[in-house]
Amino acid sequence: MVKLWIDNQEVNVEKGTTILNAAASVGIKIPTLCFLKDLNEIGACRVCIVEIKGKDALVAACNTAVEEGMEIYTNSKRVMNARRTNVGLILSQHDYRCATCVRSGNCSLQKLANDLDILNVPFKEEYEEQEWDMDFPLIRDAKKCIKCMRCVQVCDKIQGMKVWDIINTGKRTNVGLREGMSIEDINCALCGQCITHCPVGALRERDDLNELVYAIADKKKVVVAQIAPAVRAAWGERFGLKREDATVKRLVAALRRTGIDYVFDTNFTADLTIMEEANEFIERLKNKDKYKFPMFTSCCPGWVRFVKYEYPELLPNLSTAKSPQQMFGAIAKTYYAQQLGVEPEEIYCLSIMPCTAKKYESQMACMDVTGTGPDVDSVITTREVGRLIRAEHIQLEHLKEEEFDEPLGCGSGAAVIFGATGGVMEAALRSAYYFLTGENPAPDAFKVVRGQDGVREAEVEIAGTKVRAAVVSGLGNTRRLIERIKKGEAEYDFVEVMACPGGCAGGGGQPIHDNLELAKERGDVLYELDAENEIRFSHENPAVQELYRSFLEKPLSHKSHELLHTDHSL
Ligand code: HC1
Ligand code: SF4
Q1: Which of 39, 156, 159 to mutate to test the pocket of ligand 2 (most atoms within 8 A of CB)?
Q2: Ligand 2: distance of its center to the CA of 241 in Å?
Q3: What is the mean pLDDT of residues 149-173?
């Protein structure tokens, strides 16, 4: 142990502890900006500087280890002046139009400037512009970049993609796309993890709210919304709502206030996905010589993009089932349009997702089953739905909960856990067991696949058949797993992959909390919702059963193939 003093308080910590952590252990908060736990501890922003008695230079607390007998001051006059100067310098290089910034009110730099009472800074009048395709789902605004390197590190160390790099030298040093590539051509999976780890507004998703507002105002359009599983565990965070108040039923009510005509649940088509995917898996197991193994899930578009760029030879291993988002669009514009007695093009299908890659998935040319345009017209993130609610001045505290519309609003507990890593696998195993044995397993029989470890493996036995399953989240973990499979070091029958660490709960479209990863907490909410649901199995969803009876006939039928499956190499 090391004994030292911080702001005259005695502190005892393990050898090797940083000053930042030593201070935190006794409740002293040293402000940070570029710091990202375990990923970016480079001390570049010089915001966490502290004074050590007897030393001339101020040091960065995030990457300086404590030493025996140190006397440290975190808020001395010298420290405060230097910290103000450093933040002022960063601000002077940053586009300061906060009022029109997507991160206003949730920006680490803005908060620091306010906390430090910085009221006057010689802002630059002109900034170096970087060209960007504003139609692309991921937007970068170079004028707002503070060169903290967080995006570079997250994309490289967590996602293993190395999309961002340091470009130029000297005064023109900046962050940009690797090797001068364009965002359309580079291998970006669109996971959005660089967005959720950016402390300012330099990275964001394309804003699709404008188009939605026009669609709602268009009297000729029937606006139909779907809410993704993981959105319900996170949407209230932006409003500071308690978990028990931020229910999905309150979100349904809020969406109706915006003028949306019907509010449905992606859980409905998550159940439909399980019907198709579990049967596809059984079909592959029964005809092992005809198919490549393992079969991979295909509902995460960040993962599908990753396969296309990095391992195209694995495309035949992907389940041909479309994602629940896309199945919803296909069913809304066929089955539901028929029920309403309207043409497919009269329906405007909105999707509310915790994900940025879903914006890209909805625009793929193959996602148009009616030949009248995209099955899903627009995708907004959990953050954008928060902005929509604020823009409409909806007072959530006065809003009563409302039920989803029927019939596409009915979802099982198996569907809601899609939003947590391992959930798709667990839901598929529950139904595969039923399809193979004719009986339901205990609902939690396959909970062995739950957890937050980046890679989890399980071997389960169903009707005498051993199924070797793996669950992986985060693209860096995924690459390592694939390399092991390719080298013959690991062998599986069925693998679930989610591009974002923790699955959609930790998705790149979720609310941003600086230096806080909430995937586990949100995932726990989804598992609670599963346990509370009267229906725990996708095959017991009555609305899905009715859809097969009256429209699709059976899983993997000709019609199901036409509407619900795709060739991922397209
Ligand atoms: Fe997901 Fe999915 S679980 S991909 O994480 O399969 O985005 O929540 O909606 O489509 O259902 C995301 C979440 C989501 C799809 C489902
Ligand atoms: Fe990297 Fe994901 Fe950001 Fe693309 S979206 S640059 S893959 S972190």
Answers
A1: 159
A2: 29
A3: 93
229 lines ligand 1 (CB under 6 A): yes
- Please name the helix (run of DSSP H) or strand (run of DSSP E) that holds residue 50, with its range, or none: strand 49-52
Supply the residue whose CA is at minimum distance from atom 3 of ligand 2.
194
Distance of alpha carbon 188 from alpha carbon 175, whole angstroms: 15
Q: What is the pLDDT of residues 459-509, one digit of tens each?
A: 999 999 999 999 999 999 999 999 999 999 999 999 999 999 999 999 999
Q: Taking the alpha carbons of 353, 477, 17, 36 in that order, is the dihedral positive or negative?
A: negative
Average pLDDT estimate for 182-195: 97
Compute the distance between CA of residue 146 and CA of residue 200 in angstroms, rounded to an integer. Answer: 8
Contact (Cβ atoms closer than 8 angstroms) between residue 62 and residue 48: yes
Is 237 in contact with 354 (CB distance < 8 Å)? Answer: no
Beta strands 465-473; 455-462: pairing state:
antiparallel
Query: With a 6 A CB cut-off, is 226 part of the ligand 1 pocket?
Result: no
Q: Does any ligand 2 atom lie closer than 6 A to the CB of residue 188?
A: yes
The residues, ordered by sequence, that sit 6+ positions from 374 with a Cβ below 8 Å of its Cβ are 329, 349, 362, 363, 367, 368
Give the ligand whose atoms come closest to the C-alpha of residue 194.
2
Helix, strand and coil percent figures for the chain, each rounded to 5: 40, 15, 45
Please state, in angstroms and rounded to a whole number, the distance separating the CA atoms of residues 506 and 517. Answer: 7
pTM (two decimals): 0.96
Strands (DSSP E) contained in 278-377 are 295-296, 347-353
pLDDT at 565: 98
**pLDDT, tens digit, 9 for 90 and up, residues 514-561:** 999 999 999 999 999 999 999 999 999 999 999 999 999 999 999 999
Distance of CA 33 from the midpoint of ligand 1 (Å): 31
Domains of the chain: 2-92 (3.10.20.740), 98-205 (3.30.70.20), 221-570 (3.40.950.10)
